[in-house]
Write a structure and sequence with these properties.
The chain has 253 residues and is an alpha/beta fold. It has a domain at 23-106 and 168-252: P-loop containing nucleotide triphosphate hydrolases (Rossmann fold, 3-Layer(aba) Sandwich), CATH 3.40.50. It contains ten helices and ten strands. It has helices at residues 2-11, 61-69, 91-96, 114-121, 127-137, 139-142, 154-167, 184-199, 211-217, 243-247, and strands spanning 23-32, 35-45, 50-54, 76-81, 84-85, 99-102, 172-176, 203-207, 220-225, 228-234. It has a six-stranded mixed sheet with strand order 6-7-8-3-9-10, sandwiched between helices. Helix 8 links the parallel strand 7 (172-176) and strand 8. Helix 4 (114-121) crosses helix 5 and helix 4 runs parallel beside helix 7. It starts with a helix and ends in a 6-residue tail after the last helix. The protein binds adenosine-5'-triphosphate (ATP). Residues 32, 35, 37, 55, 57-63 line the site of adenosine-5'-triphosphate (ATP).
Length: 253
Amino acid sequence: MTDQLTRAGATGTAPPAEAPPCLELRDVDASYGTTTVLRGVSLKVAPGSVTALIGPNGAGKTTSLRVASGLMRPTGGQVLVDGQDVTRSSPARRARGGLCHIPEGRGVYRNLTVRENLLMQAGSSSPKDAIEIAASVFPRLGERLAQKAGTLSGGEQQMLALSAAYVADPALVLVDEPSLGLAPIIVDLVFDFLQTLREKNVALLLVDQYALRTLAIADHAYVLRRGEIAYDGDAAGLLRGNMFEKYIGEAAA
Ligand code: ATP
């Protein structure tokens, strides 16, 4: 701090204030009943960056996203959005603040039509904009506006779930296993979509089974193991030398 003050004084200008992370989990613990599943998890997502959260089944990735979006209250630690403590804020309040959570298993309303689902996602966008935006990003949705979401294919349901990341115009999107159960050609489409979000400067916290593809679009990566952070560093760093085998293992490639 003294150094900073001295430097600022010497030049006569204050150092530029660094933007706070758009999301931070600070020393978070979380449990289901008496079973603790997150232990002292700390992670940050910088504005406009892509952060990968990788780890074996049951490591606590989904739980971390649920704590971040407010679907689950941590038993210890804090959640900060844009530097503000939101640990006790509701999921709806966090959503209004620009956070969008696309949960594992799509999270679409199966008994509502595609059009009605898009209107639910719209947030501050007008209904007309919501539908036009989604149809331009995923033309297949535009052709199926009157169809019940539950009757869409798995890939189309995932497109509908992902369209929230555009329609609601969020600053930060938490995406949980978007490629799970999809045909390879649809997985390509999902990763193309995530790449376009990245180009729009939307921050992403991404959990996906395809660790290599996830790391390829990520700036920063965390590896979770049994509820604890085992790696915190450059996404590219996990691809060097034997780091991938050490932290993730060939099975996840
Ligand atoms: P996966 O890749 O298999 O989805 P994950 O890393 O996302 O795993 P979580 O779903 O966060 O892991 O689960 C972490 C641990 O918490 C697991 O041991 C899981 O069995 C347990 N768990 C998850 N949800 C519940 C629940 N509702 N009740 C009790 N235990 C749960």
